[in-house]
Amino acid sequence: MKNMLKRGWRPLIAILIFIGFWQLVTIVFDIEDWILPAPTDIVLEGRDVLPDFLPHFYATLTLSVSGLLIGATIGLVIAALLHLLPRVRETFYPFLILSQNVPTIVLAPLLVIWFGFGSLPKLIVITLACFFPVAVSAIGGFQQTNRELLHYMKMMGASKSQLFWKLELPHALPAIFSGLKIAGTYSVMAAVISEWLGAQEGIGVFMTLATSSYRTPRVFVAIIVVMLLSLAIFGLIILLERLLIRWQKKGEQR
């Protein structure tokens, strides 16, 4: 905690200076709210709109977390299959790369045509955004398993299943969590984009309504909440990482 405070005060000061400069610019140049609202106006707008905004927030939160869990699970399963089956990896790894070359914003309308305006196309968009970083990071983690330990366990007669669950998977956890951190931030962004396609509620819907009515302070409220939500998911993943791989820190301290 002390280390966090020592390292965190510089970014905090930088953010406060930026907000102060922003406020000063809007006052000095008398900028209209609908062009660039002052930070104080955004805070006041956030307070006033909170009761109407909460249902949108809960909808996006549910969509983001659901898509992240599905995407991370699919990413881990794909990574394990590609790692354990080399011929499958040689055949399908290029398809894994190609899947990320299709812009989500282009694919999304097709998903609406195929699956309608329900939750399914939105979950598919988030899953497509989340599974790739987890899969690639996990494959890299599996390949970085300590070769001496691998050779030693093979000499002891360990089966492929034992090698995977007791050696390769634990050693890949730091890499897997790196992918999860990226996927966690992508999940919120993908949820907002998917809500632009057609939804009854969600932060994406809130932003669309605010933009169409030139209520710029509301747009900034939504943007700030999206940033904080991404940061919160990122922080939860870091907390989970510290709980699950304490052994790595102990090893580093030795």
Nutshell version of this structure?
The chain has 254 residues and is mostly helical.
List the helices and strands and how they pair.
Blueprint: H1 2-28, H2 39-84, H3 86-98, H4 104-115, H5 119-143, H6 147-155, H7 160-196, H8 203-212, H9 216-244, H10 246-253
Q: How is this structure best described in words?
A:
The chain has 10 helices and no strands. The protein has 254 residues and is an all-alpha fold. Helix 4 crosses helix 5. It is globular and about 75 Å long.
Q: What key attributes describe this structure?
A:
globular
Q: What can be said about the biggest beta sheet?
A: none
Mean pLDDT: 86
- What's the SSE pattern? HHHHHHHHHH
Protein structure class: mainly alpha
DSSP strand count: 0
